[in-house]
Amino acid sequence: MNRASLEKRPDEVAAMFDGVAPRYDVVNDVLSLGQTHRWRRLVVQAVGAEPGQRVLDLAAGTGTSSEPYADNGIDVVACDFSLGMLTVGKRRRPDINFVAGDATNLPFADNSFDASTISFGLRNVNEPRRALEEMLRVTKPGGRLVIAEFSQPTVALWRNLYTEYLMRALPAIAEKVSSNPDAYVYLAESIRAWPNQDELAAWITGSGWGEVAYRNLNGGIVAIHRAVKPGGTPRPSAAPAARARLRRRSTRAVN
Ligand SMILES: C[S@@+](CC[C@H](N)C(=O)[O-])C[C@H]1O[C@@H](n2cnc3c(N)ncnc32)[C@H](O)[C@@H]1O
């Protein structure tokens, strides 16, 4: 099994990630031209978790997206269904709590996390809206959702250049640095087939989340969507003016 099809059958997706696991992080750094570090920092900021809080990092893979939480005294649970990715992660960071689980049927109790986040994972999930509902279920009322995912550059010229990179340069580079270049053809195709920023925001709202907003990174190559589970008490730090600003920004870019 070299790559999953765009049907994203769970067994094919898991097998594909099992195959790329040993070199996953190195190849990521090369293909993103070093940008992943900045994207990850901004995701952690958006989650805004505090020491002692419990955070679900879904589709955590090798746990690279989970590390900043563990490093800051946050009780992070790194969940993924690729045993290959989890094994690499556990070997590298034995202190992180890695859990095998499917995003569409999470092995966690209702209302058991202060925040749920998923970085570059939702696009690979066979039923992404079901995963959004599952993250809602396991997050406490008032808790946060933060999603980082590849998206659509907003300016036509940049979009065209990026599409060229995705469809031509990226597979060629992957051929040199990855043990499974076909997986990176899947990456390019799945990014192109993925909903744009507003469509994903509508999915999140449709799954029951409130206060949905997003910001674009690198002109829209990546978008960070965030939302809040309805029913919580308002956070003391969110002054009325700030809350009104957030509502106005709802479901549109907040660069
Ligand atoms: C591109 S990796 C992202 C890993 C990590 N979050 C990061 O930022 O480096 C995508 C991960 O999604 C996982 N995945 C895809 N579908 C899943 C599902 N239904 N349940 C759990 N994990 C899933 C894959 O196994 C893979 O490890």
From TrEMBL:
CDD domains: AdoMet_MTases. Gene3D superfamilies: Vaccinia Virus protein VP39. Keywords: Menaquinone biosynthesis, Methyltransferase, S-adenosyl-L-methionine, Transferase. One of its GO terms (molecular function) is demethylmenaquinone methyltransferase activity. Its EC number is 2.1.1.163. It is an enzyme of class 2 (transferase). It comes from the Bacteria. Residues 244-255 have a biased composition (Basic residues). Residues 231-255 are annotated as: Disordered. It catalyses: a 2-demethylmenaquinol + S-adenosyl-L-methionine = a menaquinol + S-adenosyl-L-homocysteine + H(+). Residues 231-243 have a biased composition (Low complexity). Pfam families: Ubie_methyltran (PF01209). Pathway: Quinol/quinone metabolism; menaquinone biosynthesis; menaquinol from 1,4-dihydroxy-2-naphthoate: step 2/2. S-adenosyl-L-methionine binds at residues 62, 80, 102-103, 119. GO terms for biological process: menaquinone biosynthetic process; methylation. Methyltransferase required for the conversion of demethylmenaquinol (DMKH2) to menaquinol (MKH2). HAMAP family: MenG_UbiE_methyltr. NCBIfam families: MenG_MenH_UbiE (TIGR01934), PRK00216.1-2 (NF001241). Belongs to the class I-like SAM-binding methyltransferase superfamily. MenG/UbiE family. This is Demethylmenaquinone methyltransferase. The lineage of its organism: Bacteria, Bacillati, Actinomycetota, Actinomycetes, Micrococcales. The gene is menG.
